[in-house]
Amino acid sequence: MPRRIVTGIQGIGHRVIDSIWRLGYASRFFLLTLLKSGTSLKRFGLIIRELYFTGVLSLIIIIVSGLFVGMVLGLQGYETLQRYGAESAVGTMVALSLLRELGPVVAALLFASRAGSAITAEIGLMKATEQLAAMEMMAVDPIARVVAPRFWAGVISMPLLAALFSAIGIFGGYLVAVVLIGVDEGSFWSQMQGAVDFRYDIVNGVIKTFVFGIAITAIAVFEGYDASPTAEGVSGATTRTVVTSSLAILGLDFILTSFMFRGMG
Amino acid sequence: MQRTTMDLWVGLFVMAGIGALLVLALKVGNLGTYSAADSYTLTGNFENIGGLKVRAPVKSAGVVVGRVTDIQFSTETYDAQVIMNIDSRYQFPKDTFASILTSGLIGEQYIGLAAGGDEVMLKSGDKMMKTNSALVLEEMIGRFLFDKASEGDGNENAQKN
């Protein structure tokens, strides 16, 4: 019995030390990626290729979910606001909730599960099939050649995808509120324009998406690079990417929101 | 490096993303309707601004002519100093009346400008002399109750006499 307790405590200690170790390794890896991204920025074709896989191929899911999220916001917003006779404010509600929170956060969650998991699986499989080791043998740095282009492609495509998500979502809200239900079109747009501020709402939303893009792709490339080179290891790393980056998005969103929108009207 | 169809798709993707940002900025945001470049500032001192906030609209005859840029408390006159940016297309006479109004029953508060008849126009940095404070519901109710009470007293006294 005491022996079991001792091994239990040892297990806890081992996990804590291991996770701190991993955190340090991840930070060093992140810094190394930044330092070695010079070559990939020079060879921009590599980034374009990754932009296609992370950005263009995520377009469908982003556009479709943006449309539906906006339409649901329009419906629910109308349901609640018409009780107070304020149904013309539905445009303001849809636009502000999309630009400030839902656009960046939902687009980032989708991006993490659509593109982040793919990045991890790809790099992890490259490691499992010893392609990364082969590159090192040929004096090609895998961080500069494989990791950095994927990282920068993710950082570039995340804000663009989130902007598309918000714009399509507002269009979805317009479809439901104005075309379907019949809220006055003029007041829908003018109240929205009156309430949405370029600096406070749009720029802050874009800053959020940049931070999310960095977080998601940094986690994804690290998990792929760190995966144990087995089929199980790659699948575990892919799962960890989605879980960790989703939690990171939500946590970072709270921190950023509390800085950006504190006391704003 | 040669061009591929992938480049075309990436180009389209980047264009769509930037286009979405532009739509958000111009159609959804207030960047298209209001720019700080061609505007002038006016200040006004109000006894009580109620719930007026920075970025609240300044309207004249219901048309948005500017925005509130700053609200400060003045320790010289012990009232609120409101600084607003007015579109330079709209010039107002020197005796323009500024009052804090509410849009709708529970709507946001804004500054309403009622033009006067003076020949001289307000210049940038000028201070509006005629201002009207926000209606504060508690004060109104308090005054109403006070009036009622004093009325009641008066009647009782009259009956006694």
What series of H and E elements makes up the topology of chain A? HHHHHHHHHH
Strand content of chain B: 25-35%
What is the C-alpha radius of gyration of chain B, as a whole number of Å? 25 Å
Give, in order, the helices and strands of chain B.
HEEEEEEEEH
Overall 3D shape of chain B? elongated
Report, as a whole number of angstroms, the end-to-end distance of chain A.
60 Å
What are the salient characteristics of this protein?
heterodimer, A: 265 residues, mainly alpha, 87% helix, 0% strand, B: 161 residues, alpha/beta, 2 domains, 30% helix, 32% strand
Give your account of this protein's structure:
The complex is a heterodimer of chains A (265) and B (161). With 265 residues, chain A is mainly α. Chain A is built from ten helices and no strands. Chain A is globular and about 65 Å long. The mean pLDDT of chain A is 90. Chain B has two domains: 1-33; 39-141, no CATH class. Chain B has an eight-stranded mixed β-sheet with strand order 7-1-4-3-2-6-5-8, with no helix packed on it. The model of chain B has no long low-confidence stretch (mean pLDDT 81). Chain A binds chain B through residues 45, 48-49, 51-52, 55-56, 59, 95, 99, 157, 159-161, 163-164, 166-168, 170, 189, 192-194, 196-198, 200-202, 206, 265, and chain B through 1, 6-7, 9-10, 12-14, 16-18, 20-21, 23-25, 27-33, 53-55, 57, 64.
